[in-house]
Amino acid sequence: MKLQKVIVSAMLVFFVVSLNAGVRLNSLGSYFAYLIPDLETDSELFPSIMMQYDKSMVQISTNQTNSGDLPQKVIDFSYLYPKNKLRVKFDFDAGSNVSNPNLFLNDVPSQYYGNNYRFDPLFSSYDITSANIKTIVSYKFSKMILGGFLKFGKGWQDRIYENAEINLNYDYASNENNVDHDEVYFSAGINLNIKNWDITLNYNKLDIDFNDNEIAENYQDNYMDYYCRNNSVDVIKDSKTYSLAILNEKISDNNRLRLFAMFDYAVEDLDFDYEYSRYDSMESSGGYVRINQINETAAKDENRKVYRGTIGIAKSVVGKQFDTHFGCKLNGDWQTADRFEDSSYDQYYAYADSVNGVYDFGTESGSGENDFEINKAGLELQIPLGVVVHVSGKIDILGGAGLSMSYSKFDYYQQDNITDWQTIITKSFGMSYKPVENLGVDLYFNNTLSTYSNWQFALKYLW
User: Are 278 and 296 in contact (CB under 8 A)?
Assistant: First the structure.
């Protein structure tokens, strides 16, 4: 009889957790990742967790992320399918934010400045798109559970900005900025569960290709007032990560105790190229003009190795009126990199006037190379506390707070022994509403409740 009560209590806990799966972790703080039950988070590394759920579930959620300085709205869809000893979960998320191009062109002067009328054409376009799909499978054998997952994602960003100003005395100014960002993400893992132990081996690969070009020019009818600038940045980054994750969970009545550990080894290759050129003129005293042409280049090649480790413990106590979750995490990392830098600088200048033309010129140039090592070590202690208050049978309020204390040491080139101490307190808040037994609606806030665009909304249904 006691065993039946334990089983029934555990099933009720799992049912509530599955309905709160999207918002629970966020409202209690990310410090609790893998330390408290959460289907969406747990299944990312440990597919065997899905065996605790015997009902099909559909979840749709939305939140906002930022890519650079451009906001992106993301919609997540997940579906859990249970069948005897098999569990299959599909996750798909897509984000997009396209601001329609604003094209303003007039056949007449648009603005009046003093004695000059000026045309002001403007064209701008912002396009961010991303898509990720993940398949998670878990199958229960007689004495163990075997699972695996495969994820593929792609994100890209296009940003175009063009602005031109023309007035009637032939003054002209323009600015163009084109950004092209492309990234491909791949992840695969295998999970084994024996008794209370989960062990997962995971491989991640991320490739980033970034290009930013900006051109600005400004000239008048007189060639000596001409100005032009051109910036170009190209970044290619390849990253591979190998991970080992371990989870141990013990359940007794309404108590849960979780031990979590994860160890990463990452290899990153970075190529950075920068080119800058400028051509301008500046009037000096006596009517003489100095004409300048400047060219700069910089290149960086870096190979980095990263070692990371996380150890955490947390306890969850489920009650009639409220649930409490408390624990701690210890994160450590060690990074070492070999970097080679190459730069050059060339400047050509000439003095001229309208009568004699060019009468003096000169050049300046310089270059440099650096080959050095970068080392970084860090240690962070996270202490989270979370509470779930059952206001009624339909409404739950979730709140979390976390304390982070970190220390880092940074050795970079000729600036050795740079240290940094930080103490950060975070707060979060969430609500869950279940109008009927199998339907859940969650809403999550971050620290700034008035920033409505940063709220997260999730809708879940079980059957």
Answer: no
- pTM value is 0.79
Q: What is the pLDDT of residues 289-309, one digit of tens each?
A: 778 889 999 999 999 999 999
Tokens of residue 424, six digits: 């950060």
- Rounded average pLDDT over 357-379: 85
Nearest-CA neighbor of 248 among 34, 463, 62?
Answer: 34
Tell me whether residue 53 is exposed, middle or buried, using C-beta atoms within 10 angstroms of its C-beta: 0 to 12, 13 to 18, 19 or more: buried
Alpha carbons 339 and 412: distance in angstroms, whole number: 10
Give the number of C-alpha atoms closer than 13 A to the C-alpha of residue 407, restricted to the C-beta side. Answer: 4
In the predicted model, what is the mean pLDDT of residues 10-32?
Answer: 52
CA 94 – CA 155 distance, rounded (Å): 9
Q: What is the DSSP letter of 104?
A: B
d(CA 263, CA 380): 15
- What the block records as the tokens of 230 is 């051109």
Give the Cα separation of 315 and 323 in Å (integer): 11
In DSSP notation, 213-234 reads: EEEEEEE-SSGGG-EEEEEEEE
393: nearest Cα among 325, 440, 430: 440
What is d(CA 448, CA 427) in angstroms, rounded to the nearest whole number? 10
State which H helix or E strand residue 55 sits in.
none
Cα 152 to Cα 304: distance, rounded to the nearest angstrom: 24
- How does 352-367 read in b/e, with b if 16+ C-beta sit within 10 Å? beeeeeeeeeeeeeee
Residues 6 or more apart in contact with residue 107 via CB below 8 angstroms: none
Residue 59 neighbours by CB under 8 Å, 6+ apart: 21, 22, 40, 76, 77, 78, 79, 458, 459, 460, 461
- Residue 410 banded pLDDT, cuts 50, 70, 90: confident
3-state DSSP assignment of residue 208: strand
Query: Both ends of the chain: CA-CA distance in Å?
Result: 27
Spatial distance between the Cα atoms of 22 and 35, rounded to a whole number of angstroms:
15
**Interatomic CA distance for residues 29 and 388, integer angstroms:** 12
**Rounded CA Rg of the chain:** 29
Per-residue DSSP letters for 226-280? -EEEEEEEEEEEEEEEEEEEEEEEEEETTEEEEEEEEEEEEEEEEEEEEEEEEEE
Q: Where are the beta strands (DSSP E) in 84-121?
A: 86-99, 111-113, 116-119
378: closest CA among 306, 325, 438, 317? 306
